[in-house]
Amino acid sequence: MNAPAPIPLRAGPIRLLFDHGMLCSVYYGTVEVVRRIYMALRDQHWNTIPYSIDNLSVERSNASFSLSFDARHDAAGIVFFWHGAFEGTAEGVVTVTMHGEAKSTFLRNRIGWCVLHPLTLCKGLHCTLEKYVGSTEKARFPGNVISPHPTFVGLRGMSYPVESEVNCSLRFMGDIFETEDQRNWTDASFKTYSTPHSLPIPVEVTAGKRLDQQVTISLVGAAKTTKAKPAAPVIDFKNSFIGDTRPPRLGLGCSLQKPLQRDVTEKLSASGLSHLRFDVNPHRNDLDAELSRVASVCGRIGCEAEVALHLTAGFQKELADFTATLRVCDVPLCRLLVLRIDGTVPPPEMIDTAHRRLAGLIGEASITLATGRSFVEINRALPLNGFYGALCFPATPQVHTFDDRAVMENLEGLWECISFARTVANRKPIVVSPLTLRPRKDPARPQKNGGADPRQQELFGAAWLTGVLCVCIQSELHSLTCFSDVAGPEGIISDDGTEQFPLFHVLSSGITDAASVSACMTAGEGPAVAAVKAHTVSGYVLLLSNMTGTTTALTLTGLPGNGSIARLDASTVLRARLETSFWEKTRQPLVPATPGGEYAVALQPYGVTRIELPS
User: Fold this and answer.
1) Backbone φ, ψ for residue 326 (5° rounding)
2) For residue 154, how many other CB atoms are within 10 A of its CB?
3) Are residues 359 and 295 part of one domain?
4) Same domain, residue pair 76 and 169
5) What's the Cα-to-Cα distance from 94 to each of 118, 222, 527, rounded to whole Å?
């Protein structure tokens, strides 16, 4: 069943949306002042407990609104009810109130409102903080340096400028709030939340416990009611793409636990991918068998191996055994990721030992310091010591928020994280491995949710992956390993190899073997269109994805001549699942409508369009 469409609301000069119990896209004119306000219940393992809503009542006009609903969290032994009451006035004041009650006894790490502040407005912005103890102080949101720890603590309120003579003021009631930099987890926001990290967790919540919280947003100053004028997206083939670069090395995760079907290996061989990632645990007794299988799979597909080596406290012996086995196994190793078994940052002696042991077997630039968790692990371990040739961290857009809009919005956070990582690594190559749509299952933390996301097999996954490639090109990422496996729910092809998911065609669109690439995203209220331009031996390939769930009318200008166009959308997705050469078999002539090379294309919801053009 499709989720209900967001409800547009108005509070005087403020525009916003109500979407399944949260407020999002809070705009004053063309400025997003707050990204979203949502209620989060996190259990003792930091799993987010979902909720359902009922009894929704909405009253709205052109200048104000009032709505209420009942929400119920009921999973993993946690039962919590809350009544939400949201109100917006013609004077530009928005109030969100939550009255909650626990219906079971459980352990929690957090319950309460979370407020997301957008990077576009707030990055490096000066603000005024009202502290819980009653004082006020001047402060500043983090800029290019991602803060590894909470930046503002002990909050009752804050305000920051939106434009000349207009400030956004926020008030928090019912708990002590603080603010953190969510770029540490590749989110595109700063977050103000309740329950400070300095307090012990988890906390027992007993049945019958009541909780009341409120957040108020108001515009202070000479705010005026304005009408939104979203511009139709335009991409100029000659001027929108800035800075040609080499494409990142693209690979896939590959499980050693299941055999690859022949149809899978044949499709991977034709995809142009540079490498496969294999996770190896040298403390086990099957190292010979694992590396032999790595060599076999790479030989069948014709690619190199990225080996993630998970080391324990006995890393001296483990590295000696790995080196000895590598000398007799014909593994085409392009990169070694040195990780601790618990996913945290390896100590200097661990990576120095890897460098010493493997000298002469692989290039120094291939020895990579890696974490198996989020970038925040690296950020909190700075400065990095010991020898390493590259720096690696995994990424996912769904650490804190999970809806379609949030996943697309967090592409900006991925760019921020890659750019800052290059700074702390002293300009050494940055590797993202693996990138997954949903967090992976972590063997070190089996209670933490993770695994397959059904959207990976849908058009949404293809549109998102195109946006990811756009970000990786713009940030000049060295290497990207996608997903946890090549086949199955966490891969790009069905387990038996008979079908390929839509995102398979993004990876096989011609970007991987291009001489140079460039990318751009159209501006507007949230990412609308992601575009990648690849210069190939025969001309250009232009890959366009609609990052929204509504049809987008895009104008292309400056096209160098006639070409061909192929569309991957709701009308063709079934054929795409069965046709490996989908782009070639569905392309049609593209003729610009004007002598100046202008062409209008309607991009269907989460659709991906591929255009071939002459040089």
Assistant:
1) -65, -30
2) 16
3) yes
4) yes
5) 18, 17, 25
